Amino acid sequence: MHSTLKEHGVIREETSGVVLFVGQVVNPLLLALKPAFKETIENAYRSAVGHVDFRNQSNVAREAVNAWAEEKTNGVIQNLLSPGSVTSKTMLILANALYFKGAWDSSFDPFRTQVRHFFLLNGSSVRVPFMTSSKDQFALAFDDFKVLKLPYQTGQDTRAFSMYFFLPNARDGLRVLVEKFGSISGFIEHHTPRQRVEMGDFRLPKFKISFDFEASEFFKGQGLVLPFEGGLTEMVDSQLGISLFIHKAFVEVDEKGTKAAAAVSCHVTSVGFSMSKPVDVFDFVADHPFLFVIREDISGVVLFVGQVVNPLLSV
């Protein structure tokens, strides 16, 4: 992911990077990064390569990675690595962090925010604050879902970020929508609103979600098995494989804009399109589970993807 963001100029060194802590392990194996890989990390990514004695100072390594992730995400991602996750058998940690904070191009008036019902997948509902606006918005309607695009304010450079909300028509339609999103090539590009439309009933919930999970089995299930079976040959000469892949993310949406961050840590040990429907006045009431995307529109690079099933729930 980092190389893609870097290549397209989406990220800057001060807000994202890669840090590696290389373990000093007992003989006869002495782990050393290949010169070409080390040079790429230091020069192309302007990132750090540090040495830690995992055998005797595993907790020091864990705390160092946590401090780095917290710094790179402006304090949003804390305790990326839990106690006990780094042990004397750990030989390499690859950590990546990305922080994003954007102000809406057209902010919401907080005095118009009202508490309404948000309907959950189990049929119940919770009461959450909904933002609204009478301004025209970028929106499109398709057969079984709607798309809303909220641009962020642009800076001095050429980057243009937006947040997309994919709302199924059915209250329980999120699963089908996610399947389409993941299986259709170019889904976002082919369902991107290009023009502003007059809004009718427009409500968007404020939400703050954070989650973390161990992603090794997920990637294996998607067919990505080589890195877990000693396939890190571009890094080192030894037969090393990823033993733990931790992902932690945070996204907050309110009247001013979005704050989002994600951090990833890998532990290594030996081893057909819908057609849009024209409308005169557009209703977009996100009062049931939906999908969201934060994207840089010039390059098309996606920074964050997530689902909101309960705006009050932090997983």
UniProtKB/TrEMBL annotation:
Name the UniProt record assigns to this protein: Serpin-ZX
Gene3D superfamilies associated with the record: 6.20.40.10, Alpha-1-antitrypsin, domain 1, Antithrombin, subunit I, domain 2, Serpins superfamily
PANTHER family attached to this UniProt entry: GH10112P-RELATED, SERINE PROTEASE INHIBITOR, SERPIN
Family indicated by similarity: Belongs to the serpin family.
UniProt-listed InterPro entries: Serpin_CS (IPR023795), Serpin_dom (IPR023796), Serpin_fam (IPR000215), Serpin_sf (IPR036186), Serpin_sf_1 (IPR042178), Serpin_sf_2 (IPR042185)
GO cellular component annotations of the record: extracellular space
Domain Serpin, chain residue ranges per copy: 2-311
Domain of life: Eukaryota
